[in-house]
Hints:
It comes from Streptomyces auratus AGR0001. Keywords: Metal-binding, Molybdenum, Signal. This protein has 266 residues and is α/β, with parallel strands linked by helices. The protein is built from 9 helices and 9 strands. Mean pLDDT is 88; it is low at 1-44.
Amino acid sequence: xxxxxxxxxxxxxxxxxxxxxxxxxxxxxxxxxxxxxxxxxxxxxxxxxxxxxxxxxxxxxxxxxxxxxxxxxxxxxxxxxxxxxxxxxxxxxxxxxxxxxxxxxxxxxxxxxxxxxxxxxxxxxxxxxxxxxxxxxxxxxxxxxxxxxxxxxxxxxxxxxxxxxxxxxxxxxxxxxxxxxxxxxxxxxxxxxxxxxxxxxxxxxxxxxxxxxxxxxxxxxxxxxxxxxxxxxxxxxxxxxxxxxxxxxxxxxxxxxxxxxxxxxx
Length: 266
């Protein structure tokens, strides 16, 4: 009798154990999935990002990137600066990158197949830039039409070049530049080096060289507003991390950095 009871108890124990095995296995799979999800989430937050950005963002983005990296350990933000049209060409040619920020909406609109929906993160305006101390006494846009002045402008394919043409055309001014540059920093450099008497650049670019150039304000009614859209690229291998950085650019902290550099609110 005792042996029979013992046998039945052992059998029951085996059945119970057999029933528990699948449950344990299921629990193990669920835990594994949770762990896997956490790993993916963690890796998404930590990445080596490449951000293509308009030349006029060079100084402020270097500062913003350093702040972002400090607050997001494990994430590295690498910037590649150039004219917006050059950056767009790089994207279309398959250059490896995670996000793009241009100096106009037109360029970004041409990349709908390559980029996610953009968000405007800042705005800017043009100024006339001259040599330090304004030796040519330039005071108005109309002064740029003086044939005695060596004026340099950005090429019309570049956002700042289009904005420049827009403001000059609106005032019915004919300006014959001594050269047309590929980006706004090249225009600024020509004036800094004394190779040109004046040029049209963004307000924020002139502010980066206060000891080398003088900025002459253009009235709002005669000016153009440049918008800076930012978007993640569909080809990115770090889409979550790229999206996090693009989102951060609209936060109060990032906006403060942009506005301290002279950019306007979006």
